[in-house]
Amino acid sequence: MKYHLVVPARENEPARELLIQQDDFLIGRDTDCDLRLSDSTISRHHCILHVSGHELTVIDLGSSNGTYLNGQRVRSQAVVPDGAEVSVGSWKFHVSLGVPGRNPGDDPTGITYRPGRLPRT
Fold this sequence. Notes:
Elements: E1 3-7, E2 15-20, E3 24-28, E4 35-36, E5 47-52, E6 55-60, E7 67-69, E8 72-73, E9 77-79, E10 85-88, E11 91-97, E12 111-113
Parallel strand pairs: 3-4
Antiparallel strand pairs: 1-2, 1-11, 2-12, 3-5, 5-6, 6-9, 7-8, 7-10, 10-11
């Protein structure tokens, strides 16, 4: 199963869509993170998106400002449904299931969209 993380446009950065290719996708500020976000509201190792078979789980790593799934704080871990919104610090992402014809391409470097033209989930 392939999952995509839609990263919205911010300031001088265009929106992009990332393919989650590994079992554990680390989000945080540290250099070893798969998605590195330079934001003081994000912990060095904030959360992990864990892929197991046909299920995606978000795991909060004891972050100071919390990890949220569809507006609800994740205390430990939670299953992420298709189309869900995951929030860390001041960032919000949409997760989509890699269904053929629904998501553009499988480019591991990400796909860039013009601001205001993100696909609807």
